């Protein structure tokens, strides 16, 4: 049984969240469309219910304590989850809602163009998407699943492998005209664009060009030098602008090559370390939208590999 003492009313929690966020009772009252006295009474009643002082009073101002700041962060996340759950219920009363975190370029260039097929096949499911580059905790975020690159070591989550990463080096036609390339050593002397989260990628590419060894099992070349970016979309634009050679996942490289924006350099689709994974928290292992999405992703990947 939940103890009512530790379940403040929504009005109390909204007042706390607004006062801490705005650092002003007056501003909080405006946000909540309440009077200042009402907001002050809600804060006082919350402190009385919890038996803990959350603010210090200085010249009619409420200064949040460290405990109040921590409490407000947790309360804010909880209110966000309640709001999203309510919005999902209204927009999709069948309950088939999945909030998904995806790598930015994968979302726009690989998943996005295909997602209509999933929604058409599963009309009772709606998908909310946000981009994330780094791992996060499913306990503190509001996502049901995520697609990321790396190893299957996401804490507290199950993982389903989508596909291994293969990379292709690409450059603009103008860049290659001014920088002729006949072998990998020519590439090593040029500006090599790098992704912040894949700084070993060029080592794997050089290994695949020269020795055929597995990724990460050969000595480094002289070391990649060039612009460092945090997203593949930026790397693609930099390569198109002639700023260097991009090292792209092959699914991205083939799009740019087919549309004549970039030209492949030497051997294509070189294996590299890491893979793309669908992950979801253990508590949602039987959640129907995730099961359907996992099956659909497997079909898409199989279709790509067969093609």
TrEMBL record:
UniProt entry tagged with the keyword Chaperone: no
GO biological process: DNA-templated transcription
UniProt KW DNA-binding keyword: yes
Keyword terms: DNA-binding, Transcription, Transcription regulation
Domain HTH lysR-type residue range list: 8-65
Protein family membership: Belongs to the LysR transcriptional regulatory family.
Protein name in the entry: DNA-binding transcriptional LysR family regulator
Lineage start: Bacteria, Pseudomonadati, Pseudomonadota, Alphaproteobacteria, Hyphomicrobiales
